[in-house]
Amino acid sequence: MTAADGATTTRPLLIDTDVHNTLHHLERYLPREWQDRWMATGMGVGWNYQNPRGVSRRDVMPPNGAAPGSDPLFVLSSHMDRYGIDYAILCGPGQIPLGVDPDYMNAIASAYNDCGEDLWLSVSQRFRGSIIVNADDPLGAANEIRRRAGNPQYAQVLFAAATRSPLGRREYRPIFEAASEAGLPVAVHPGTEGAGTAWPPTPVGWPSRYMEWHNILPTAYMAQVNSLVTEGVFEDFPDLRFIAIEGGVAWLPHLMWRMDKNYKALRDTAPWLRRLPSEYILDHLVLTTQPIEEPRDPEHLAQILDMIDASRTLMFSSDYPHWDFDNPDLVLRDIDPVMRARVMGGTAMEVYQLREAPAREDLPPHAGGLPPVTGSSLGAGPIE
Amino acid sequence: MTAADGATTTRPLLIDTDVHNTLHHLERYLPREWQDRWMATGMGVGWNYQNPRGVSRRDVMPPNGAAPGSDPLFVLSSHMDRYGIDYAILCGPGQIPLGVDPDYMNAIASAYNDCGEDLWLSVSQRFRGSIIVNADDPLGAANEIRRRAGNPQYAQVLFAAATRSPLGRREYRPIFEAASEAGLPVAVHPGTEGAGTAWPPTPVGWPSRYMEWHNILPTAYMAQVNSLVTEGVFEDFPDLRFIAIEGGVAWLPHLMWRMDKNYKALRDTAPWLRRLPSEYILDHLVLTTQPIEEPRDPEHLAQILDMIDASRTLMFSSDYPHWDFDNPDLVLRDIDPVMRARVMGGTAMEVYQLREAPAREDLPPHAGGLPPVTGSSLGAGPIE
Lengths: 384, 384
Hints:
The structure is a homodimer.
Chain A: H1 3-7, E1 15-19, H2 32-41, H3 72-83, E2 87-90, H4 102-121, E3 127-132, H5 138-148, E4 154-160, H6 173-182, E5 186-189, H7 210-215, H8 218-230, H9 233-236, E6 242-244, H10 252-266, H11 277-284, E7 285-288, H12 298-307, H13 310-313, E8 314-315, H14 337-351
Parallel strand pairs in A: 1-2, 2-3, 3-4, 4-5, 5-6, 6-7, 7-8
Helix pairs in contact in A: 4-5, 5-6
């Protein structure tokens, strides 16, 4: 589908690009040799930074009292139908942290994917999956991508933003190669910065508390975008899209401008580049909205969206069911309506190749915890 | 001096807040027990990232053929007189890297300061010095500050932005205490990120080349500002100004907005704070211009300057004699003239307590390598 096709769709789709679904009873999906370790230690890594009030909203617990995000039917009714969301990109736990044993981490990634197919993707075509991989073993990750790529319900490859080295380094090329072969974008998610065997979450060491750590997470994204562009990943994989989930937005102008300025003086140190760094960024990088920065003066955010050409580079995400959830009825409500339609679904239709609205399933009665919103949540009518 | 006083000065001063003066023959200023080590190993640390063409401009070599930045008289004539610069804040080598031996690093810091007083501060009142300290030994650094603070030619305390832990952590309080007692701002300078025993320069490890490393240096500054504010340093030292030299500008709106948003949800984890994080930032943080980001659309930079209230938070710096020098006649030439006068000198007058223009010295003939610019370099006349 081209952008022009997308623009002529009668109703712009609403696509939530970051929904967290619980993948539980992982021991059922792990090979026998890992089950005892999982039951005894779980992931087996230290986390260091944890929200003192937990990460989930307390108002989205399913009627059966299970954990928020654990019931597919309740996600469909209480989140997707409530806000008129056509597709949810399921991100599971978001990522696997850096650990010492690549075989164990690969097995967990694969079990996550089996569990997701079994409990979630089978329930509704409105769910689109992430192939969760352990990027710390790039060859193993490439194998996992190739094994899953035949399932058209997968929308992207997903791993932790907190990698051991910047993603432009050559050791990660097998991941991008496998994703490109499958026609899938590659996405990263925050949360494991400073966990497991990761480096400290900042170039100057360890922040003291969760809020301070959370404030600074986008710097890992800046480092990844810088590396991907400078090391020529988008020259090697010209159709690749890189999705920076939940990593902030307003830092991008700074990074583009600084990279362009240095490139003019030092471009012979990256001779494989043929364009300005910012041109690669605008063509290949996609950010997600939540948590969107909220300056006192809304005009300032509108200016930032202009600087990053947000109609091409920004996709709506809610982060359901997490604590800092963004409501699609409220987020970016006052920006230009044409840009908003692109952000709320138009760009995601292209990035994830979602051509039209899926059929709504009839849900069983227990699924309805909250009354669904009727009509489009995007406004008074179609935006052309 | 108050802001109002500054605004009524007849001619706004031009103050260059980042000039690198060479501090050579350090062995003459080191105690006997360190001289052999210095002659044999110098600083004794690995640097990892070095500009393939060196860091200095080739057009500012003194007539005697010595290194750029090594001749005080030539700096006065070829840089300060040429551009009409009233004061230069001398930053020496910028910083001391993180090493293993605090005694050795403390001794080097002290030798730098002795050398700077001997070879530079004694030459002209237009030179203002930095008390260079080894922040990795905060108690030693505090001693060095107290030992130098009686000399009114010192304008600031200076150390490497690449610290071992974020600066808000309690172990660094003695530095801020000593600086506050002396009424001096505290400044950091980039260059040692990833050098010596520093952490990797990004939360995801080691970039592959100098350009990539240089692109991402501002993330260390973001981490430091985040920590200083969150950990309450500006509550403990309400008169302290923190100067982020050469760390970029356009990232600040993002950081302020993200910190404010998280603070609203998680402020009970930093109960010593009484205001929004952005309010501390705007009152206590000062950035320097070079290297200023240069978007294709100059209006975008003007918008960023508005977002950060640049009349209060930004000071001109040239980075003389380094490769990415900014010319004071050209930098930010098209911004609002009142804001420009604040950036080029008004704010620095307050931050460094420089009340009036100093007398120009008569320089000996050898000093004149380039013809001085006559008149004010700021424009057609005084800006009130």
